[in-house]
Amino acid sequence: MKTLIIVGHPTPDSSATQQFLKAAVQDLSGVKWHELASVKGNFVANEERQLLQKSSRVVLQFPLYWYNVPDLLKRWQDQVFTDINQVSLAGKELGIVVNVGKAVQEFRLGGTVGFSLSGLLSPLAAWAKHFQMKLLPLFVIDRFEYQNLKQQQQLLIAYQQFLELPQPVTFAAQEAWFLDKLKEKVDLASGRQRQQLELIMQQLQEKTTKLADLQAVLRPIRKDDQIHGN
Questions:
Q1: Is-contact 208 175, C-beta < 8 A?
Q2: Strand bridging mode 3-7 / 31-35
Q3: CA–CA separation, 90 vs 208, rounded Å?
Q4: How many CA atoms lie within 13 A of 87 on its CB side?
Q5: 110 pairs with which residues across the strands?
Q6: pTM for the whole thing?
Q7: Which residues, listed in sequence order, are joined to residue 62 by a DSSP beta bridge?
Q8: Which of 22, 55, 91, 166 could share a disulfide with 4, CB 3.0–4.6 Å?
Q9: Is the model's pLDDT at 222 over the cut of 70?
Q10: Rounded to the nearest 10 degrees, what angle do helices 191-227 and 171-188 cross at?
């Protein structure tokens, strides 16, 4: 799968959030990072369409500006999609990565914002439907500047999985992803570090096998509960 990240931040070089996310994709071979600010809004429509055509998953990534997308991203839409017949996005996936400056819980009824992020970004959902794209679950980055190291590490993993894994993601897919990433590190390591990584990978594989066995035992029990309405 090829993923194209359309970065709609007008000044990504000065954004700690965007620089963090950019570093997170450096080792992801199937992911292309495309900053709209690099051409200063002078988009070559055919080139932009070719990038879209080569991708199976398109990710629109931006900060929420006054409860909307940045003007740069809106201009990209207006200039690239002048005619529906000039680009075919049918069947492609659309992901939305949005970072917000207010706490996520404020984007709900009764919160200080009073509107959900899904509601505020519904024009993008309509845009995806217009081009017959599959809309992925919204990926929200909650006040990056206030996140501690552990939260940033969790964000990095979740972001990489959002870009690479089928969505919505399953626990089994996450486990397989972790094992693949760990194996890549093992292949590059040597000496004592390689031995430590191999031990970690072995332990993770054993836990994965035990969990799969437990799920196999519980599956018929759950099915019986559903039949009897328990």
A1: yes
A2: parallel
A3: 36
A4: 24
A5: none
A6: 0.81
A7: 98
A8: 55
A9: no
A10: 170
Strand partners, 142: 100
Tell me the two tokens of residue 42.
């002078």
Count of alpha carbons within 13 Å of 147, Cβ hemisphere only? Answer: 20
Residue 5, exposed/middle/buried by CB under 10 A (0-12, 13-18, 19+)?
Answer: buried
**Number of residues that make up the chain:** 230
Phi, then psi, of 44 in degrees rounded to 5: -95, 105
Q: Please give the C-alpha separations between residue 84 and each of 48, 57, 64, 159, 163, in angstroms, as whole numbers.
A: 14, 18, 26, 30, 26
- How does pLDDT run across 63-99, given as a tens digit for each residue? 999 999 999 999 999 999 886 666 789 999 999 999 9
- The residue whose two tokens read 């070089």 is 13
Residue for token digits 């949005």? 98
Give the per-residue pLDDT at 214. 47
If DSSP codes are grouped into helix, strand and coil, which group holds residue 33? Answer: strand
Helices vs strands, H then E, count in the chain: 8, 6
